[in-house]
Amino acid sequence: PSYTGxxxxxxxxxTTEGIALRQLPACLQKEYDAVTMAIxxxxxxxxxxxxxxxxxxxxxxxxxxxxxxxxxxHIHAQTAKNWHGDFVRLVGKNMGWMDxxxxxxxxxxx
Length: 110
Prior knowledge:
Radius of gyration: 15 Å
């Protein structure tokens, strides 16, 4: 899978990560794949790199509010909200939630 836009490097030496991904329960693997596909699709959109920067700031790097991420990226707060919504809908669509056919994945307790 492509790791573009996600924290960490994208080199081939990510052995531990590869092992961890192979060990994921099926429902968590589905979530991971849904987010990965959403990242790839978002990158191909107009302003894709900026959209990925916004998502990265909001979720992975700093976990800051969308308004603060918008300010940092020099975009309007409403644009940030729209881009965030686009990303969330892509993940939901990739999970199958948009058609109401799949149930929410709840990992089993350890």
